[in-house]
Amino acid sequence: MTAPGTRRPAVVELIGAGPGDPDLLTRRAEVSLAAATLVVTDVTVAHLARAFAPGAAVRVSPAGGPDRESIDRGATVDGDTLAVLIGAARAGGSVVRLYRGDPWLHPAYAVESAILASAGVDHVTVPGPLVELAVPAAAGIAVHHPRLAGTVTIAPSTRLPRAVDPARTLVTVADDADDAGGVAARLARSGDPDLPAAVVVTVGGVPRAVRRGTLGELARDRTLGGGVVVVGAVASPAAVAAALPPGGAPGQRGGGDAPGADAPDVDEPGADEPLLSREGG
Amino acid sequence: MSTAGVVHVVGAGPGDPGLLTRRGARLLAEADVVVADGRTSDDVLALVPSSAELHRVGTADGAPPWPLADIVDLMATRVGEGRQVVRLEAGDIFVASPVAEEVAALRARGVAVTTTPGVSTATAASLATGMVPVPGSTVTFADDSRDHPAAFVDWGSFDEPGSTLVVLSDRAHHADIADRLTAAGVAGTTPVAIVTAPGAAGASVVRTDVAGLRATRSAPPVTLVVGPVRRRARLPG
Predict the structure, then answer these.
(1) In this prediction, does ipTM exceed 0.95?
(2) What is the pTM of this model?
(3) Are residues B96 and B160 in the same domain?
(4) Nearest residue of chain A to residue B22 (CA atoms)
(5) Residue of chain B with shortest Cα separation from A172
(6) Which residues of chain B does A234 touch, with a Cβ-Cβ cutoff of 8 Å?
């Protein structure tokens, strides 16, 4: 607690907001936003800042935006953003920098935290759900699977590795500027077009539907728009159902070779799969 | 009117109850039955309602983990009674976790399941190392769990310069990992941070490099952050 008459030390909270779903905000983030006087936010999670920090001034930062094609060390620095953060913190405000996803993988975090430190402004970092893990999980897709996939690689859509191994899950975010069909097409050209894949279509960071098929099939779908692309065996409900160990779940149908209760029999691209795994409300 | 039972799979986060998501906290507060793994923190378990039935099904205090069939049976039975079941898994629900099989088995039995992701222990532990991925590079999370048949790691695929590798391991075989990385062409000078007890209050970080990894010892579970990866220089001729 700060003694009367002394100035609060300058501190900025660097907070991960998750993918944008208000229900995936952490409790700690909710408390910090409620007390904030200034929030500098990524545009993709600005709706959370406005909803949860009603008493704060909200400023949208251009650094580390959704267009990852423009991201490099130079592009992650926005001088105005940093000047505002530093000035407000020094003035004793409750200052939050709100990042989409988790700070650790956010392209602006390293530079912004270093510049704050060099300016004598302390920072506290609060993790959040990583977009590339949280969106598939919210849609019921397991990026790791004890019998199907031991690694998951998260890649920017502009630097995609070759996808050739169904046991290595690959996840990338295709934002509106770089639609999921285009990402699938590039992956199909450079790797194995027959790999299973899924696109979790999101609105405001909230999964709305899942399209499944092979990479080649999804590459031909021009209606996908933005979303999170998952490549590998884990994207196939049939493969996941078939991986159940015999006798692993008494009462299950067919000893693991039957599709799950809410899994489509055929991974058909072009048809939205309802999200039965979403909690209502 | 009776309520339909549901299994809600919830990521418990790395340990701090403040890192539970809003939905996860709400579902926990409304739970009739909580089925938790062995690594969910006591601080999070303190949020389980006193009226709820609590089962620890993972490895905790030396107890062996429950078999998959027993976990699924328990949850399916409680759902059949119209209960709201929360399956708590430390960190995120599907990262280095056995939950994917439980979800598939429940769905195969026609049990309603919802999934609520959490803050990953892998990213929280990596953040604690002070090492940050190069913007625009790839990051790979590898499940090195002893009990997962698919937890094989293709170490040869991690020599991409600038990439970061995070290994989630429940065994202490640092020398083996160092040998495999070296064989894959990763330079011995590539930085490595070892986080012991990731997510716990007593978590600690040891910094070394791939060459120095062989000489380190730490009790599992550990999170290893390797990177940014540097490719080993090739000798002429």
Answers:
(1) no
(2) 0.89
(3) no
(4) A23
(5) B138
(6) 100
